[in-house]
TrEMBL record:
PANTHER family: MFS TRANSPORTER (PTHR23521:SF3), TRANSPORTER MFS SUPERFAMILY (PTHR23521). This is MFS transporter. It comes from Kiloniella antarctica. Residues 199-422 form the Major facilitator superfamily (MFS) profile domain. It comes from the Bacteria. Keywords: Membrane, Transmembrane, Transmembrane helix. The chain crosses the membrane at residues 12-31, 43-62, 74-92, 98-119, 131-152, 158-177, 197-217, 229-253, 265-282, 288-310, 322-344, 356-376. CDD domains: MFS_YcaD_like. Gene3D superfamilies: MFS general substrate transporter like domains.
Length: 422
């Protein structure tokens, strides 16, 4: 285990720096858009560009990697991201910024794909689940710490954009110096969405809803915090609390979902998410500490919906179809993430900043009702449950690590059954 960690330490450092820059630039652009005088709807349009780009990149960036290799493609993606971050300060136009976010999202997906496939190649079945957990912790710590990078400058000036560009450039160094062998990229065959939905309607719908709410928080959370009167420092605390809350609650809730009916746990998590969202609205008139506590609870519960939903689909899926299932869930999450910020911004425009959590509460309530109906229609299955695996709610992943970890878990289970039978 420790030998494996040592061999992938440089990859995790690069990934952590990517998440550091990602967390910083998402908050920075939300605030800067409002400073530039863009409407809330326009800001939502700009922010959704990244998630559309990440969806496209997660599906097609593998072609770039296959053509030029992991190291060259990573260097190219990082260079483009450094340029696009700086380009925001050259021309403040919504269409131009949307195009920049589209390019950034594509490159980000490609860089994550490089890191994930490389880490996956260096791990083995016995420790892949633990490696995935460490990978996700790195994601949350990087994204959460990135919020505090906002304290290094004024969002109305250019310095923070320069810092973000430098972070993306520095992320190149560890992965360029690694001695780990670059793996051969894979492009999993995707399952038709209709077939995927029939496997587990609750899991697929939950994945879409998670994409909508998580992407909305990533893209518009800072705008909400600023418009309810928080300072820049308090906005950083607000966003970081949501992210770190998601990191802390992933494992305990995930383990609970392994023991009980996953759909029941999903209802409980979604209900708590909706209540905590309403609590955030209430807390906007309370002290900053109460508001931070409420958003930490919201982030903690909200970011568990994605992995619980994904695990529910894996519970119901044919074990030979895990790769296709994984790719299909990626599309489902990406569709939700591409819609969320736009719809959330419309609610904020109509009802004020509190409309953000009115929107997320509505999404969560819809998921609860849908899940209850499905529980009534289909009784709890008796198939072997796939072990819960953590998934980051801050970005769209290529999910190579997740698929490999679930497959490894199934192989161990099958091996254990075979031993008992023998």
């Amino acid at each position: 285990m420790w030998q494996t960690l040592k061999s992938i330490s440089s990859l995790l450092i690069s990934f952590g720096m990517l998440m550091l820059g990602q967390g910083m630039i998402n908050t920075l652009l939300g605030l800067r858009s409002r400073i530039e005088g863009f409407s809330t709807e326009t800001t939502g349009f700009i922010m959704t560009g990244q998630f559309i780009g990440m969806l496209i990149g997660a599906l097609f960036a593998v072609r770039v990697i296959a053509a030029v290799g992991h190291i060259r493609s990573f260097a190219a993606f990082a260079s483009i991201m450094s340029v696009t971050v700086l380009a925001h300060v050259l021309y403040a136009d919504p269409i131009f910024w949307f195009a920049l976010r589209l390019a950034t999202g594509f490159c980000m997906a490609g860089m994550i794909m490089v890191v994930e496939s490389w880490v996956n190649e260096r791990s083995v079945n016995e420790n892949r689940g633990k490696i995935l957990s460490l990978y996700m912790i790195t994601s949350y710590i990087g994204s959460g710490t990135g919020q505090f990078m906002m304290l290094l400058g004024d969002p109305a000036q250019f310095q923070l954009f320069v810092i973000a560009s430098m972070i993306y450039s520095f992320a190149l160094v560890p992965i360029l110096l690694t001695r780990a062998t670059a793996p051969k990229p894979s492009s999993p065959q995707r399952m038709k969405f209709t077939k995927l939905f029939l496997v587990s309607p609750v899991g697929v719908f939950g994945t879409v809803c998670a994409g909508m709410t998580n992407a909305s928080l990533n893209g518009m959370g800072a705008v909400f915090a600023r418009e309810v009167g928080l300072t820049i420092a308090q906005v950083s605390m607000f966003m970081a609390a949501a992210i770190f809350g998601g990191m802390l609650l992933q494992f305990p809730i995930g383990r609970i979902s392994d023991r009980f009916d996953r759909r029941t746990v999903l209802i409980a998590a979604t209900f708590c998410t909706a209540l905590s969202g309403l609590a955030v609205i209430w807390a906007t008139d309370q002290s900053i500490y109460i508001l931070i506590a409420c958003i930490a609870l919201y982030g903690g519960m909200s970011f568990t919906i994605y992995p619980i939903s994904s695990s529910q689909v894996n519970d119901m899926a044919d074990r030979s179809k895990l790769v296709q299932i994984s790719a299909g869930l990626l599309i489902a999450y990406g569709v939700g993430a591409s819609i969320g910020p736009i719809v959330a911004s419309q609610f904020m425009s109509l009802t004020g900043p509190k409309g953000f959590f009115i929107f997320t509460t509505g999404v969560n309530c819809t998921l609860i009702l849908f899940t209850v109906v499905r529980i009534i229609q289909r009784r709890r299955h008796t198939n072997h449950k796939a072990s819960f695996m953590p998934l980051g709610g801050m970005n769209i992943s290529s999910k190579q690590l997740y698929t490999a970890a679930v497959t490894a878990d199934q192989e161990k289970t099958d091996g254990s059954k075979h031993s008992k039978q023998s």
